[in-house]
Structures are given as structure tokens and as C-alpha cells.
Amino acid sequence: MDITRSEFWVIATLVVGTLAIVVPFAVYLVQQQSRNAQFFHECAKSLFSGNPIEQSTAAILLRGFLRRPRRKFLYMPDYTREAKNLMVELLRKPISVGLQKTIADGFSYAGNLKGQEIQYVNMVNALIKPEYRVKFESTENGFLKFIYKRRRLSMRKADFFHAVLQECSINNVDAKGAIFFCAILNRTSFKNCILEKANFVNSNVKDVRFDQDCKLEGACFDEAVGLDSATIRIAGDQDPHPILEYLDEKGVFHSEGVPDEKRYKPRIKTINLFVSKLGTLDSTQRKQFDSTIAALKKLGNVDIQKIEREQYQNVSQLTDVSTHLEKCDGCVILAFGYLNVVNGFIHEHVEGEDRKEIKNKLYSSPWLHIEAALANGMQMPCLIIYDKDLCRDGMFENNIINSDKNMCAFPYSDTMSVEDKIKMRQWFGLVQEYHYDKTKREKKEK
Hints:
Layout: H1 5-47, H2 52-61, H3 80-91, H4 97-105, E1 127-128, E2 132-138, E3 144-150, E4 153-154, E5 169-171, E6 173-174, E7 189-191, E8 209-211, E9 231-232, E10 241-242, E11 271-276, H5 283-297, E12 302-305, H6 317-326, E13 330-335, E14 339-346, E15 356-363, H7 366-377, E16 382-386, H8 398-401, E17 407-411, H9 418-445
Parallel strand pairs: 1-5, 4-6, 5-7, 7-8, 8-9, 11-12, 11-13, 13-16, 16-17
Antiparallel strand pairs: 2-3, 9-10, 14-15
């Protein structure tokens, strides 16, 4: 069919007009995508800066990436997965208390955390409270009214393995089938949460409160620590009830209650810790030793094992130490000062860079390095508490400690910092896991 000249100009005008509208809009979308990508990378970079204000600002801005973009026209960049993984990774690192709480609280703004791996994170004092959303409800007169209803955050089958969730407030969360295996939940409050078939096996639930219509049907608390102090508030009853009243012989929760003769009987488990120390301690070191032992015993049902100087064998000392270690679940090395070099040399008779002068350096006993190496060879969790002036050589070098997930170290202080307490609790979680695996192996062998 022939097209007249006037028709041609009409079609050309329409095409040019359409392009004049579409092309600028497409360019705008591309530029917007580029700006979003640049903003995300700048936000992530700021989180690792040394400026606390810049870090906190970036942690708050990161919450904006936790929701999927609503516009689906053409292509909109989605950074939800990257934002969640970045938050989890940061919470696994030793960061300041303020930044840690800001990041942990940010999970409240996530659209969905279903199946999210949140292992080994530090979420102490976190507040998980999803934001309100607008809903419509019809009235008797047929009109619609706005109501604000707090949405429920999905954490179904999320993995909180060895997470530190101490003193948290967790509200309106659907954590059905979530894994809290070996998690530390001391003094945490759950409100209006769905925790059916959740796995609390071997976790620490001391003074945990399940309030306001928490659903726990089928949740397993077998071998959990502190069950005698955990409580649940039943609908229509003002007083909290011990959670042990609702656990069967296998530690599984039943909302209708369990008869006395079929209730769960907590098994008292003792965790043995081998403490490696100097053979002779001065008065200051003795006080440091006593305060450290007291802090370790607060972690749980702990029994301290050590070898005093007079108990060392004259022969086969390594075999004797290894035998003691095999009976334990974790090793604590108190690396206090042993040798103070005021002035000396390393490789005094060697020329070049290997010859180094030493002035006022403090070293610990070589036996502490040996015992730390033996415990590490058994893949046993090791906690090194060292003198702040100690020369970090041998097994106490940062590159050795930081490369092994079973090793943890921090300097001794009369007043232990919050970060060091968190490190100690996380290390104790590894000890519990080691104890659990060893017990399971022993049962198989029997």
C-alpha cells in the first residue's frame, strides 16, 4: 500500500515525538541505576572508614537497600542480598558497640530474611521491631478506614548458629523452623513471635522470656543451658510459667502442657577447660589468674583443669599434657610476662636484616606456646589472654590467631571491655560445640 507524502510526515512526526519522550526517560533510568550503584558502594566503603559518625550514617543509610525496589519498569538494581550479607559480615567483626547495635537494629527494616545465614554474628542488645504499614479495613457503614498494623518479619529457617543474641528484644517475627543451635540468648525477650519447630538445641536460654502470644509448638530445647530460668506467658494468664512445664522427654515444646512424669529432665553437663599458666605467679599475676577463672566460671557449668609445676612428669611431658587436654573441651592460655629483656640481640652474630636489637621486651614461657600448639593441633578452641606489654611472637602472633577460627585473643584488663566479653562468649560457644561433637562421637563409639 502506497503512503502519501502527508501520511509519511505524520508517521515520521509520531516516531520522532515518541523517541523524544522515550530516549530521555531511558537515559534517566540508566543514570539513576548508575547513581544507585555508586551510592551503594560509597555507603559500603564508609562503613569501613575510621570515622564513627560516617560509619553510623552509612549503617542507617544501608537500611534503604534492604527492601526490593517496587518499580519493575525496564530494570531497577536490587541490592537487598548484598546489603544483608554486608550487615552479617560486619556483625562478625570486632566493631564498636554503637555501630554494632545500629547495624543489628537495621534488620527490622528488611523486607525478608527467610533462610538468611546469620551465623556467628554479634547482635547484643539488638531491637528487632518491624515498622508499621498501612492497611484498609471496612466499617459497618461500608466506608474504608486506615489502620496501622505492624508487619511480621519473616525469618523462617534463618540460621543463627552460634549467634550472640543476648539481651535482645525480638518482636513480631516469623521464625518458624529457624536454627538457634548453640546460640547465646541470655535475657532475650520474644514478643508475638512464631517459633514453631525452631531448633534451640544446645543454646543458652538463661532468663529468656517468651511473651505475648509466642507460638512454640514443636520447638526443640534439648540440651539447652538455663532451661530452669526460661519462662513463657500463656494467653489469658498474667503470670509467666516455667518453660519446662511444656517440654516432653525429648525437649520438644507442647502448648497443652506435659504431665510431670513425662517432662524433660535437664542433664547437667560439665565443660572442662584446660588453663595453661606460668609455674610461678607473682602477687599481681595471681590476682589476674583468680579474676580470669571467676569470669570463666560465669560462662556456664565449667570445671577448671590445670597442671601445677610439681605435677609435671620428669619424662614424656608432651604426652602427659596431651592426655590432660584430651579430657577437656577448651584451652585458656594466660600469657603473662615471664622474661623481661632489657637489652639484647636476635641473631647477634649475623649480619643484615636478621640481626635485631631488643630493648625492654617482655616474653612469656615457651611452655605456654607448646601447650597452645598441642591444643590447636587437636582443633580445640583456644582463648589467649595476654599481658598488654607482651611481645606477640610464636603462637601468639596475630597472623596465626586471626587465620584460625578456633583461636581468640585479647589483652588482660582489670575491667573487661564489652568487646572482650563478647569475644569470650563467642569463644565459649565454640567450646560448647566442641563438647557436643565430642560427646556425640563417644556415644557412637559405645
